[in-house]
Amino acid sequence: MAGFEVRTSNSKKGKGLFATKKFDKGDIILEEDPLVSCQFAWNAAYKYLACDYCMRPLETPEQNVRRLSCKPDIVLPHANCFDINLENIASCEQCGILYCGEECKQRAFNIYHRSLCYDTTDSQHPIVILLETWKQMHYPPETTSVMLLVRILAFIEQSNDPTAAANVIKQFCHRTVNEDAELVHKLLGEQFTDQLNTLRDMTANVINGEYIQEFLTPEGFCSLMALVGTNGQGIGTSPLALWVNSVSELTMSDDERQQLDLFIDKLYQYVEQESGTFLNTEGSGLFRLQSACNHSCAPNAESSFPYGNHRIQLKAIDLIMPGDEISISYLDECSLQRSRHSRQKELAQNYLFVCWCERCLAQGSQPDCTSEEEMSDDDIDDED
C-alpha cells in the first residue's frame, strides 16, 4: 500500500496528492527519482562537480569545503564518518562527461545521453551554443536550465513508447497559452518573445525528431519552457552538509560537541565569505508524483534530498489523516513567515495563482500592506 493517491483536487488546482492512510509527523510519505534531472548551467560552469545523471557531488566533504572557502589546509575532524566514494567514477567514452558510477552512466545513456552525447571541447557545437546563450539570459540565482527541457525531449525520443512518454510530459501541462506566456515572461524578462524564439531554434538544432515536433512549435515550446520553470523541482546536494549531518549523530562529550559546533560555525563563515550563499550543487528535476503536491502556506509535508543525489524524499511535518491533501510550500522559509498579502503576491507573480489555503483564509482580516512590506504598483488582484 503506497498510502497516497493522485486525483483531482478542484477545478483551480487540478490534480493533487491525497493520503489514503494516516501519516504521523516524521513519517516518510514517498521517495522518488525524477523522470529527468539536470544541473544548472552556471553551477556547472563554476566547477560544482557532480554526476551528470543523479547530481551526486564528485568531491569529498573536505575537498568541497576547501574549494568553497579557498582554504586548502582545512582538515575535517571525523572525516571517516561520512565520505563520498570517488573510486567508482565513470565517464562517457565519447564525450568524457562524468558519472558517479557505471549504473548512472548506463541510465543516462538509456534515457537521454544517447541523443545528447557531444564533443564538449567544440565551442561551435549546438549544445555549447545553446548553453552559452542560456547563461546570458538566466544569471544566478538560477531556477531552471534549458538543458532540462532538452533532456525531456530526449527522454521522449529515446523511449520505447515515445507517444506514451510524450503523454506523460503533457500531464504536467495544464495552463492556458496566455498563462504559459506570462510564466515565460517572468523567467526570461522583457525580451522573452525574441529570446524564446532563439532558444527554440537552437533547441531544434540540438535535438529534432518525429515524436517531439509538437514541442518545437512556438506554442508547444512556450508550454514546455513554462513547464520546466514551474514544475521543475529544485535539487540541492552538498558534501559539507552531509558531513555535518553525520557528525551531528556521533556520540561525544558536551565539551567535544561544543568545540565541534564552533568549528562548523567557523567553516560556514569561511565559506560564506568566499562563496556567499552558493554552497550546493544545484539543479532541477521533473518528478511525476511529488509534482502533484499543491502549495499551502501551512504545509503538512516537506521535500528533501537525504541521499546526496536527485532522489527526493517527501516527509510529513504534521499529522496527516486519510483523505487529507498532502501539501508542500512553494515558498522558502523566509517568505513563508511574511504576511498573507506578501505570500499571495509572490505566488501570483511566480505561479499565477492566488492562495486560498486555510492559513490564508484565517488571515483574511490582515491589511493588504503592512508597514514593513511596501506595495509596488503592480499589486495582485484577488479577482484574477
UniProtKB/TrEMBL annotation:
GO terms for biological process: methylation; negative regulation of gene expression, epigenetic. Its main location: cytoplasm. Gene3D superfamilies: 1.10.220.160, 6.10.140.2220, SET domain. It holds the Pfam family SET. GO terms for molecular function: histone H3K36 trimethyltransferase activity; histone H4K20 trimethyltransferase activity; zinc ion binding. Keywords: Cytoplasm, Metal-binding, Methyltransferase, S-adenosyl-L-methionine, Transferase, Zinc, Zinc-finger. PROSITE patterns: SET. The lineage of its organism: Eukaryota, Metazoa, Ecdysozoa, Arthropoda, Hexapoda. It is found in: Cytoplasm. It comes from Papilio xuthus (Asian swallowtail butterfly). It catalyses: L-lysyl(20)-[histone H4] + 3 S-adenosyl-L-methionine = N(6),N(6),N(6)-trimethyl-L-lysyl(20)-[histone H4] + 3 S-adenosyl-L-homocysteine + 3 H(+); L-lysyl-[protein] + 3 S-adenosyl-L-methionine = N(6),N(6),N(6)-trimethyl-L-lysyl-[protein] + 3 S-adenosyl-L-homocysteine + 3 H(+); L-lysyl(36)-[histone H3] + 3 S-adenosyl-L-methionine = N(6),N(6),N(6)-trimethyl-L-lysyl(36)-[histone H3] + 3 S-adenosyl-L-homocysteine + 3 H(+). It comes from the Eukaryota. Residues 2-331 form the SET domain. This is Protein-lysine N-trimethyltransferase SMYD5. One of its GO terms (cellular component) is cytoplasm. Its EC number is 2.1.1.359, 2.1.1.372. PANTHER family: HISTONE-LYSINE N-TRIMETHYLTRANSFERASE SMYD5, SET AND MYND DOMAIN-CONTAINING PROTEIN 5.
